[in-house]
Specification:
- There is one protein chain.
- The protein is α/β, with parallel strands linked by helices.
- The chain contains nine helices and eight strands.
- The strands form two sheets. The chain has a six-stranded parallel sheet, with helices on one face. The protein has a two-stranded antiparallel ribbon with strand order 2-3.
- The two termini are 20 Å apart.
- The model has no long low-confidence stretch (mean pLDDT 89).
């Protein structure tokens, strides 16, 4: 499950919910009651979204107060700059609050949507900034795991190949060597995911989950027939994928599945 209170809870049906009920906690517990693990998926540098899932017209108040925290890039409000220590502090505290408040089985940082998260042209030079974030979040989750007496898994969503990761400033090999991640989600919009390259470089210490995005076009495909998905996923399986993650796959309208 990808819990997103901005997009999911923007539906008018939630307007009638009891304001004293934590809907995220309800979804979490109902997911686990059905025998599924529940992960909190955090887009590290989301575009700024307001109520109803609409892009904010006004500048994000935190970005307005701290213009030095962002990278001026394709998104007019700027993307969070993980080379800034205060931004990493901000993100670590967010994970700490979530881990203390909720009983998720795992957490995933989505670095791949959106980029960049480091100043363009200096990504690999500044890779230790992202590794520092990974270490600190892992520490937060390990402490929460010990307190709750249950494993809490940690995953990162990165590019479709190690070459892409390096270009973005993600030292994935080091993350795995230091035991900072349990799982990696690979790519999203491309069917050409270098599972074999990841496995050769990283070994069996980490689980690999290539990702299918059904909403954004992938290699010029948009909502292809089931045969395409069968071909892609069977190819990934033969290459050694441990599982497959799907992204932006929406449920049907109620009248279609009731």
């Amino acid at each position: 499950w990808d819990f997103d209170p901005i997009h999911d809870f923007a539906d008018p049906v939630w307007d009638h919910a009891d304001p004293d009920v934590d809907l995220l906690d309800v979804l979490l517990k109902e997911t686990q009651r059905r025998g599924y693990e529940a992960f909190w998926h955090h887009r590290i540098s989301e575009v700024d979204i307001g109520p109803g899932g609409v892009a904010m017209n006004a500048l994000n108040p935190i970005k307005a107060e701290h213009p030095d925290w962002v990278i001026k890039t394709w998104w007019w409000q700027g993307m969070w700059n993980l080379a800034v220590p205060e931004v990493r502090d901000f993100k670590v505290e967010l994970f700490r609050e979530m881990a203390e408040r909720y009983d998720f089985d795992g957490y995933q940082i989505d670095f791949h949507r959106h980029l960049p998260v480091l100043p363009v042209g200096r990504q690999w030079e500044l890779r230790d900034s992202v590794t520092d974030l990974m270490r600190r979040v892992r520490e937060v989750l390990l402490k929460a795991s010990a307190k709750k007496n249950k494993p809490i898994l940690f995953s990162a969503k990165v590019g479709r190949s190690l070459e892409v990761c390096h270009a973005d400033g993600f030292d994935v090999e080091r993350w795995v060597q230091e035991g900072l991640v349990d799982m990696l989600t690979l790519g999203s919009r491309s069917y050409e995911v270098d599972i074999e390259g990841y496995r050769k470089a990283l070994g069996l210490k980490v689980k690999l989950y290539p990702c299918l995005d059904d909403f954004h076009a992938s290699d010029s495909y948009q909502h292809p027939p089931i045969e395409v998905f069968r071909g892609v996923t069977s190819s990934w399986w033969r290459q050694g994928a441990d599982g497959i993650e799907i992204f932006n796959w929406f449920n049907a309208a109620p009248e279609e599945y009731i």
